[in-house]
Amino acid sequence: MYLVNVSPxxxxxxxxxxxxxxxxxxxQLHFVDSHSQGDKRTGFTFEIKPDISVYHNTLGGAxxxxxxxSLLDMHIEFKMYNFENPFTCPPSNNQxxxxxxxxxxxxxxxxxxxxxxxxxxxxxxxxTHCFSLFILHDTARIIRWDREGAVVTEPIPYNTxxxxxxxxxxxxxxxxxxxxxxxxxxxxxxxxxxxxxxxxGLSGNPPMFKTTIPGNRDGPSLTVxxxxxxxxxxxxxxxxxxxxRTYDLLGDHVVxxxxxxxxxATNIVSEGEIYADLNAKGVEVARAPGVNRRRSAHKxxxxxxxxxxxxxxxxxxxxxxxxxxxxxxxVCCI
Length: 334
What we know:
Strands 7, 8, 9, 10, 11, 12, 13 and 15 form an 8-stranded antiparallel sheet that branches. Residues 1-6, 286-295 and 306-329 have low confidence and may be disordered. The protein is α+β, with helices and mostly antiparallel strands and 334 residues long. The protein has helices spanning 8-17, 19-23, 105-124, 163-173, 190-200, 271-280, and strands spanning 29-33, 52-56, 74-79, 130-136, 139-146, 149-152, 186-187, 208-213, 222-227, 230-231, 242-248, 253-264, 292-299, 310-314, 326-333. The termini are far apart. It contains 6 helices and 15 strands. 20% of the residues lie in helices and 27% in strands. A hairpin with a 4-residue loop joins β11 (242-248) and β12. It folds into 2 domains: 8-173, tt1808, chain A (Alpha-Beta Complex); 186-333, no CATH class. It is globular.
């Protein structure tokens, strides 16, 4: 793959001309020029328009003509000028002491732009993390985003280094969970989806999803059917809370689903445990036809990479703690 130092949109044309060579290494991926066909349905007040939207062939014939954050596998953003580059390259022996995020308005604008694209993808899909690519002239950086922060590689000179080709090859063959897809959630069977839409009073034919939530303290599990929860526009690193009314398949009644990423610390009691304690004490406000919590194996991974590659930013999910935290996926049904 070769790009030259020309305008971003001419670079797109050159990139498009090289897609066939990339496809030989990643035939499962589809690269779509989306710089002029953005996504207006993410909840943000502006269109989500990455230069390139990458889709996986598991979509079948449903590859969008532009950007669709609900189907996107990865986005690629091009920049032409060095003053738009949000990253610097601190010396390898001093990375802990030298900031590698630029502070100028242009640098912060670029950082906000690619961060917003990642956030739109995370709130539009059932995901644990996602990847993106930032290209400046003849170098590329791979970025992995999750609810704790982001991890950025050092610049990859892709004209002389095969690292980018190897990444696309490995990514295209990776199982869904390594690409960031939450495999604990599936499309609901048509008969169960119909029952759920009727119980929830949903008009039309919105897609319905299914998951099973283990019970608290060896309690019974709960299988629920629900539409896609609507998240609010936010930064990529946050709790990522979204909620919706949900159908309890076995109990044949409506419950309330809350999905979020909580701080995983021994001195912080999870929300599900609090609900269980309140119910055990007969507190009416917490009474519900089945209060359950799913404490899945999903964890953020930004903290693991601190000593391996550059960490873009890392935040504690709650503002009242200053320790380095690991966040864990949390789902409550009330």
